[in-house]
Every structure is written in C-alpha cells, then in structure tokens.
Amino acid sequence: MKFITEIWHPNVDKNGDVCISILHEPGEDKYGYEKPEERWLPIHTVETIMISVISMLADPNGDSPANVDAAKEWREDRNGEFKRKVARCLVASLFSGSPIEKHGTVFPALYPPIAGLLL
C-alpha cells in the first residue's frame, strides 16, 4: 500500500510506502521484530487493512519507524515542526493538481494547483 502524495509520518517511508505488519510477507521476520501471526494472513480483508492503516495514522508506532526523521520529530516536537510538516503535506495533496492513476487509467486531480498556499 502506498500514498501517492507526500506524507510526513513515522510509519510511511519517503516513497509513500506504508509500513504496517499485516502488509508484510507471511512467515518469520528476519529481524525478529514481528511475530508470524502479526504479518500477512489470508484472513485479512480490505476492511481490516484499512482499519490498521487508519489506526497507524492516528497512533504511530515509534518503535519501528519507516521514516526515522518523522519519528524523531513526532517524539520530540509533536505539536510544533511535526504538525507543521503534516499540515503542509495535507494542503499540498489537496491542491497538487497531480493526476490520480487507477488500474492504468489516469484521472485528473479534483483540485487545480494553487501556488503559495502551503502553511
């Protein structure tokens, strides 16, 4: 699972890839961090995956960051610089004008680009 617009979050890497256990390949974790039952299982549905992503967005796992810089800011300055970067990413995503690609079809963005609107 991947965000197509920039996001500043401890558990989303700089390429937009979401880092949650249930999306990791089944089996043993070579680093010993995750239990096999925490990783991908065929019982997961779109609903359980979306609930996990929403939970991760609301409550980051600072012990296993995909974006170390975002995790550091989240721990040290959550209501300051971290919050400002999150807001910038949100506004930029709303007004980026970037097309959205779905199943090989490109859809225009919902909002036109607006320069200088970033917080």
Automatic annotation (TrEMBL):
InterPro entries: Ub_conjugating_enzyme (IPR050113), UBC (IPR000608), UBQ-conjugating_AS (IPR023313), UBQ-conjugating_enzyme/RWD (IPR016135). The active site is at C19 (glycyl thioester intermediate). Keywords: ATP-binding, Nucleotide-binding, Transferase, Ubl conjugation pathway. Residues 1-95 form the UBC core domain. Gene3D superfamilies: Ubiquitin Conjugating Enzyme. It comes from the Eukaryota. Coiled coil: none annotated. One of its GO terms (molecular function) is ATP binding. PANTHER family: UBIQUITIN-CONJUGATING ENZYME E2. Belongs to the ubiquitin-conjugating enzyme family. This is Ubiquitin-conjugating enzyme E2 G1. It comes from Alligator mississippiensis. The lineage of its organism: Eukaryota, Metazoa, Chordata, Craniata, Vertebrata.
